[in-house]
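Amino acid chain
________________
===
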Amino acid sequence: MAVSSNTEERGQFGSSLGFIMAAAGSAVGLGNIWRFPYLVGENGGGAFVFVYILCVLFIGLPLLLNEIALGRKSGKNPIGAIRDTGGNKFWQLAGVLCVLVCFFVFSYYSVIAGWTVGYIFTEIINIPVDFEEFVQTPMYVIPLTFSFILMTILIVLGGISGGIEKAAKFLMPVLFLIILFIAGRSVTLEGAEAGINYYLNPDFSKINGTVVLQALGQAFFSMSVGWGLMITFGSYLDKKSNIVQSGGWIAGMDTAVALLGGLMVFPALFALLPGKDPAAGPALVFDVLPKVFDAMPGGNIIGGLFFVLLMVAALTSTISMLEVPVAYLIDDRKWGRKKATWLVGIAAMILSVPSALSSIEGNIFAEIRFTFLSNELVGFFGAMDFIFGTFAVIVICLMLALYTGWAQKINDFADELAQGAPGFTGTFRTGWIFFIKWICPIVIILLILNMVGLFGAPQAA
């Protein structure tokens, strides 16, 4: 009886569509909509887009399939997946890192998501907000962060098919409709051509090692590989599901949102605020874009919709971030879903406070400063983002590729991919094995060496 009740606690996706929507939702996040456009601006416009698409196809997609196969083969969370497929304590460290990464990133990512909740109201009511002042006001930021984490908790409490799958099937179409509407409005503005040209006109002479590594780094984070999300979601799949086809859909939807993100931002920026720096990072979304919306007819409604879009993108990601540690507690500690979800959610609320306070000048959490692997880290938020949201993710990708490619029989995982995917034979199968065993580890090692400064100044991906 204990086993069957635990199986009920785990749950399962009711359909391949539900899995694709949930997995694509976990991949589509704030990074697609604001980080991708400004990286394009900093790294050669259309040339960066070209390199990014190659990185998704040849590095991101093989790693994505690798994680889903590991999850479905074991039917477990990241730690259990490695343990139950024969991995010793060393390899299980990759699973432990997955659980830690999801928990820590969930805590500080929710702070940015909380900003989007606040901006939905200020845009619709049409109240001008000074971004610098807003992020330094904890009486706004902390309650907004908590309310966003609570939303995530309530969805995960519903389980896989009743909560996560149902939410993803609703939220992902909403996300695409809003993004298409805003991109359509943006490209039809007078003077939008300059922005479209800046974004999509490739100058291949700008492609260098830095551009390739930046594109590769963005492909990792955009595709949600190295987080354990895809291992966990893969563990909820039945054996008839076509993992290869689903992986293609996830990569395609994720890339489409990133490309449309650029079409929302650049044409409007160039048309309405010529001369404004498009490589302005978070400020581009929270400081510059509200001014762009103000300059549009009916701009407060479009602005409100845009921040709803950002909130939905963040929510589809945080649902899966919370599910990874929850799945571990259900599988390995035999906790009920309710207890696990509330415990992890409340712990994330507590940990989100230092991240929220690290935007306040003079605050102790803003003043934290130390060097980690030749990188100067400033502030609690920045340190968490580099250590857990960047470095640990890449280390996990390397460990998982080496684990399935070398420590175990890779043909076992290729067989798992072939189950439910009759087309995964011959060249496709051989190619995937070659990329997991050789190409992915070599490329990831180069990326890590670049991050620690071996090729000049340290460069976070």
The chain has 20 helices and two strands. The domain at 2-451 is CATH 1.20.1740 (Amino acid/polyamine transporter I). Confidence is low (pLDDT under 50) at residues 1-5. The chain has one domain: 2-451.
